[in-house]
Amino acid sequence: MAYLTREGRRYHYREAGSGLPLVLLHAFPLTGKSFEPQLAAAPKGVRLLVPDHRGFGQSAPGPFSMEAIAADALALLDALEIDQAVIGGVSMGGYAAMALLRLDASRVKGLVLSDTQASADDEEGKKRREATAQEVERDGLSAFSKAMAQRLLGPNASDALRREVESTIRAQEPAAVAAASRALGARSDSRELLGRFAGPSMVVVGEQDSVTPPEKARQMHELLRGSRLVVIEGAGHLPQLEQPERFNAALWEFCALL
Fold first, then answer.
1. How far apart are the first and last CA of the chain?
2. 149 domain-assigned
3. What is the mean pLDDT of the chain?
4. Are strands 45-51 and 85-90 parallel, antiparallel or unpaired?
5. Which residue in 11, 185, 197, 251 could disulfide with 126, CB within 3.0 to 4.6 Å?
6. Is the model's pLDDT at 1 over the cut of 90?
């Protein structure tokens, strides 16, 4: 585990391996810990970097947006003197990966989008994000963490994994979760952006994902020229935790081609 100072705030990240830089950005409302199965299995030739987004895990809070997460990741690359990296993200991390592509496409050697979508929220979606923010500000994370763990994980997930995900959510600060929920509602539409990206790309989705179902992944796959589409059987919204061996096989194979 390591830290850097970003705009006067502590920014925490995990690192494993050496070689091709690969940045993985985590889902809402989790932390970089959700990529432990990938950190533990980073193959020879891959340098895996996994930050905690501002206000989550061990990173200090700050103004929250998808662009802010992306700017933090770019600052991490700068601090480590990395010109280009494969940029990947799960769910909210996917939105942040697209924001990074928007900020500076020259830094993106390859793009991995897992269990996310390219379109912005409609008005009803924005209202739901605001309702979630107000709920956690008012009631805390106890009930929310239990409901969210059920929503994120597919029916095949073990009870132990459900408890782990629920515990991670419950350990976050309500203010950070509320800020992130509002930022999700305010995110930009990225369909045109993906249509312009010509670099290597892969879209991954859990077969049982009910949050951003496989149809959303297929839409991104069609937008990204020459992309690979990988459907992970037996997984919901968090395939990197639910089916890590299948997720890792797809991820390492993609990296080996770059």
1. 26
2. no
3. 97
4. unpaired
5. 185
6. no
Which domain covers residue 28, as residue numbers?
2-121+188-256
The CATH number covering residue 101 comes to 3.40.50.1820
Please state the φ and ψ torsions of residue 34, each to the nearest 5 degrees. Answer: -70, -5
Q: Is residue 152 part of a domain?
A: no
Q: Is residue 74 domain-resident?
A: yes
Amino acid at 43: P
Q: What is the pLDDT of residues 32-76, one digit of tens each?
A: 999 999 999 999 999 999 999 999 999 999 999 999 999 999 999
What are the pLDDT digits (tens) for 219-230? Answer: 999 999 999 999
β-pair partners for 230: 204
Domains identified in the chain, total number? 1
For the chain, where are the E strands, in sequence order? 2-6, 9-16, 19-25, 45-51, 85-90, 108-114, 201-206, 228-232
Two structure tokens written together for 246:
């299948």
